[in-house]
Amino acid sequence: MTEVTFSASHGQGRGCVIHRRACFSASHRYWLPELSADDNSARFGPCALSPGHGHNYELIVSMAGGLDANGMVLNLSEVKHAIRSEVTEQLDFRFLNEAWPEFDVAKPDGCLPTTEALVRQIWQRLRPHLPITALRLYEQPGLWADYIGNAMDAFLTIRTHFAAAHRLARPELSQEENESIYGKCARPHGHGHNYLVDVTVRGKIDARTGMVCDLSALQRIVNDLVVEPFDHTFLNKDVPYFSECVPTAENIALHIADRLTTPIRAIGVHLHKVRLQESPNNAAEVYAETPQLEIMPEALQAMATH
Ligand SMILES: [Zn+2]
Ligand SMILES: [Zn+2]
Question: Which domains does the chain have, with CATH numbers?
Answer without folding.
Answer: 10-148 (3.30.479.10), 150-292 (3.30.479.10)
